[in-house]
Amino acid sequence: MNLYVIIAILLYLYMIFDYEKAFILYCIFKIVLSLSVNLINVLGYPVLSLEMFSNIVFILYGLIYKMRLIEGIKRFPLNKEYYLLLLSMIVSVMFSTIGFVESFSRVVAFIINEYLFLCVFWTITSKRINTYRLISGYAFMMVILGLYGFYEKITGLNPIYEYTNSLNIGYKSLKWDGSERLDMIMVRSAISHPIGFGLYMASFLLFYWGLSVNNMLEKKTIIFNKYFVILLCLLGAWFSNTRSALLFMIIGLVGVIDLKKKQTYMVIAFVAVIMVYMSDFFVPYYENLISIFSKDGTTANVGGSSISLRIDQFLSLFEYYKGNELFGMGLKASEIDTDKYYRLLGLESVWLLLLFERGLFGVASFLYLITGLYLLIQRTGKTYILFIFIAWLFVITASSTPGFEAYYFISLIILSVRVFESQKIVEEEVCISKKI
User: Which mean pLDDT values do the consecutive 10-residue runs of the chain (436 residues) have?
Assistant: First the structure.
């Protein structure tokens, strides 16, 4: 019996009794679900991921029995941005070079897995307690992933990955089979790809560190010591052995490190001592960062694409999609005929993917989403969140991010907004009480 399915069924049952808590638990569980666990896995039939089915269950139940969700969807601050994204996808499907049927499934998945899911997330976090429950839940999952990743680093074993992979025989849900770089293991923990694992840990590290130095964590909702969480996230991102995670951390830390805050020095001192003590683990990874600036494609020790290969991918793109510049080749076009588009090397940039599949209209719609996210971040008035956002933009521009879901990063932005909104309300209440 599929253990993931058993957990999902238990959450469905709990949903009947307490929808909000069940949804929070599902958000935590969803991190390890990704798109790598299929519910229907029979050759000759469309593949239905457990994640998509679970999203449908929670969304439909919430819309039918929790009328507050309908109002929440109307108030979702990124509605216009997602409508334009959806329109760019639909137009791309209409002009697709591979046919309507092959492309349209991506539109359905986008509506359910990203837009409607985030609408529900936005609505649930309107309650202060739910926001902090989610933060604590995410922290709990990062600790579990970090500890398991450390186990994988030490032993070289990953039974969870092997089990998950065994559930998808005949399909390519877990596409990456490499395991080493610089003669060191690329840790993936319970995530489908090392890049995904590294980015989950790096993004939460910066988010949680930022909340910590700004004294935004509620003590009653903290499950683990905050320094312990930060350390495990740092180790996880580092041991993923991926340049994407390291660069994400470096850019994000520029905004997170506030030298005016006492907590900053405490965290830096704690991390520095650990890194010195474990220097044998950390030093070998520095070549990862240097290699990305290599001019000759891949380096002998590191492998992977560098700046020159990225440029070649863009040049190849312009050759392949001539005549389809406005609306692209169609969703999933690059997945249907990989041999034909071999020079694109998997479209290792969000801009490559957008231009190829959705054309200039798709790029414009994504830029509109970026603008919407920026305005949402401005609500917090915190520079560090903007730097984390810039780090994400840099990474998705420089590389593909297999195993790391965009909805998760946007959910961190939503949590940041909710935390600072609730903090503002508390401060206003304190001011009123003092006047009284």
Answer: 89 94 95 74 67 93 79 90 95 79 83 94 93 94 94 90 75 52 76 92 93 77 82 89 87 81 71 68 61 52 58 68 77 65 67 87 95 93 90 90 91 93 63 52
Strands 180-181 and 184-185: antiparallel
Q: Measure the N-to-C terminal CA separation of the chain; round to a whole number of Å.
A: 62
Cβ-count burial of 421 within 10 angstroms (0-12 exposed, 13-18 middle, 19+ buried)? middle
Let me know: does 121 contact 411? Beta carbons within 8 Å: yes
Note the pTM of the prediction, 2 decimals.
Answer: 0.87
Long-range contacts, stretch 69-77, CB < 8 angstroms, 24+ apart: 69/119, 69/120, 69/123, 71/123, 72/119, 72/120, 72/122, 72/123, 72/126, 73/116, 73/119, 73/123, 75/122, 75/123, 76/118, 76/119, 76/122, 76/123, 77/122, 77/372, 77/376
Nearest to 11 by CA among 52, 57, 49: 57
Closest to 383 (Cα-Cα) out of 259, 229, 219: 259
Q: Rounded CA gap, 252 and 247, in Å?
A: 8
Residues 368 and 360: beta-carbon distance below 8 Å: no
